[in-house]
């Protein structure tokens, strides 16, 4: 329920073009999640290439969340836990590399701020 409320609030803020990012307000550089709401909004409108202009993480996050929902509906979420436990180090390394890459792109992305 909390996730749904946060996503709903993010979309409402996006509609009115209100951007609240504590990281940006403190350090004056975009965070890794900057542009993510606008990117998701464009993805849901079917504008995949345009969504990449705001944040590259939207598409992989949507895929991961979709898989999680499918496994949750099928009551097989234990398989996700097994996979995460067996590949923990690889997942952490790949995630860190992806996050750093996207963050560097966000810092120089003129669409964000």
What string, H for helix and E for strand, traces the elements in order? Answer: HHHHHHH
Give the C-alpha Rg: 16 Å
- Total helical segments: 7
| Number of E-type strands | 0
Which consecutive residue ranges, at least 5 long each, have pLDDT under 50?
A: none
Supply the number of structural domains.
1
N-end to C-end Cα span: 30 Å
State mean pLDDT (0 to 100 scale): 87
| Quaternary organisation | single chain
The percentage helix is over 70%
Give a quick account of the main beta sheet: strands, pairing sense, barrel closure.
none
Task: Bin the strand percentage.
Answer: under 5%
Supply the helix-strand structural class.
mainly alpha
What shape does the CA trace take?
globular
Notes on the protein architecture:
This protein is mainly alpha-helical and 113 residues long. It has one domain (2-107). It is built from seven helices and no strands. The longest helix is centred in the last third of the chain and has 20 residues, at 88-107. It is globular and about 40 Å long. The chain starts with a helix and ends in a 6-residue tail after the last helix.
Short description:
This protein is mainly α.
Topology:
Elements: H1 2-15, H2 22-27, H3 36-44, H4 48-52, H5 58-73, H6 77-86, H7 88-107
Name its key features.
globular; mainly alpha; about 110 residues; single chain
């Amino acid at each position: 329920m909390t996730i749904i409320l946060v996503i709903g609030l993010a979309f409402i803020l996006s509609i009115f073009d209100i951007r609240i990012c504590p990281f940006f307000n403190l350090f004056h550089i975009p965070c890794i999640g900057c542009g993510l709401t606008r990117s998701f909004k464009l993805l849901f409108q079917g504008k995949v290439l345009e969504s990449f202009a705001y944040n590259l993480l939207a598409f992989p996050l949507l895929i991961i969340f979709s898989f999680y929902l499918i496994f949750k509906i099928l009551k097989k979420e234990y398989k996700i836990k097994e996979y995460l436990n067996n590949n923990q180090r690889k997942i952490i390394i790949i995630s860190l590399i992806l996050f750093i890459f996207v963050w560097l792109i966000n810092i120089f992305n003129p669409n964000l701020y």
